[in-house]
Automatic annotation (TrEMBL):
PANTHER family linked to this entry: HTH LYSR-TYPE DOMAIN-CONTAINING PROTEIN, HTH-TYPE TRANSCRIPTIONAL REGULATOR
Domain of life, source organism: Bacteria
Protein name from the UniProt record: LysR family transcriptional regulator
Source organism: Paenibacillus rigui
Keyword check for Glycoprotein: no
């Protein structure tokens, strides 16, 4: 069993389809099928079977996939460790980044980092903060940039702390909010959502008049900008909308309701020169980008 077989098994297990797996691996379907047959001969067991919905792995096959994933992980870490033994900062930096942070802040940060460390290749995965947290825990990425509150016991660096804002196309009387249409941006952060609900209940005895519900900050802001109602969004999303009416939310005691962005990573990751360089870079250069 060779290292290319590890990748074949992992990809086929992920795609559950011979054609799509072969396309991703840039090999022909017959070549992929042949390698799987050779592995079955080597281990004396049936690895996969073809069903109506695609490829299904046998228990023996799933055992081999688990082994393949472990070996690929160890091979990658060994390569990274060897590269880090040199004095130069070189290699691949794997980042998991919250989609909203990636949209507003990541491009200039990466451009500046690569300019400083030309020997580093950047691999970026964007998505929900909960998914990025999972990727860091599984060591699929070196570092994660998360929005909101998450349970994390290892290293972290506070990147931003921004207010949550009520926005509208024109100035509104906050006392009239219960009768005004609200464009509800669905926030996945449970604690932040509870803080918003508490803010509302401290001021009003009736629920908000929600007329639209969206899962995208950008969609919410654009609808507000079109005069379709008011919304509550993080301040980060207002960079290109300076003309909107903005009111920063505060608790009854006058404390701002904020949303934090954290850079998280495992303690052991600092042994890799590319990770240490990026952590130091973020600590020293973030203000130049986010202000």
């Amino acid at each position: 069993m060779e290292d290319k077989d590890w990748l074949i098994l992992k990809t086929l297990y992920s795609k559950k389809n011979i054609t799509r797996a072969a396309e991703q691996l840039y090999i022909s379907q017959p070549a992929l099928t042949y390698r799987v047959q050779q592995l079955e001969k080597e281990f004396g067991a049936k690895i996969v079977s073809r069903g109506k919905t695609g490829v299904e792995f046998t228990p023996q096959g799933e055992c081999l996939v688990q082994y393949a994933e472990q070996m690929l992980h160890e091979l990658r870490r060994t390569k990274e460790r060897i590269l880090s033994m040199n004095d130069q900062v070189v290699g691949t930096l794997r980042l998991g980044v919250s989609a909203s942070f990636a949209r507003y802040y990541l491009p200039p940060l990466l451009k500046s980092f690569v300019r400083q460390y030309s020997g580093v290749e950047i691999n970026v995965k964007t998505g929900l903060s909960s998914d990025i947290l999972s990727s860091v825990q599984k060591e699929e990425v070196h570092l994660g940039i998360l929005r909101g509150n998450h349970s994390w016991s290892e290293q972290s660096l506070l990147l931003t702390s921004e207010p949550l804002c009520l926005i509208a196309k024109d100035r509104i009387d906050l006392h009239e909010l219960p009768s005004l249409p609200k464009i509800n941006y669905v926030i996945n952060d449970l604690r932040l959502r509870q803080n918003i609900e508490k803010w509302w209940m401290e001021r009003f005895s009736v629920p908000p008049l929600i007329t639209m519900e969206v899962d995208s900050i950008e969609t919410c802001v654009e609808l507000v900008n079109s005069g379709m109602g008011y919304g509550i969004v993080p301040h980060m999303s207002l960079q290109n909308h300076k003309s909107l009416f903005v009111h920063n939310l505060q608790t009854k005691s006058g404390e701002p309701i904020i949303r934090e962005t954290l850079l998280i990573y495992r303690n052991a990751s600092l042994e890799f020169s590319v990770v240490k360089a990026f952590v130091d870079f973020m600590g020293n250069n973030l203000e130049n980008v986010v202000g």
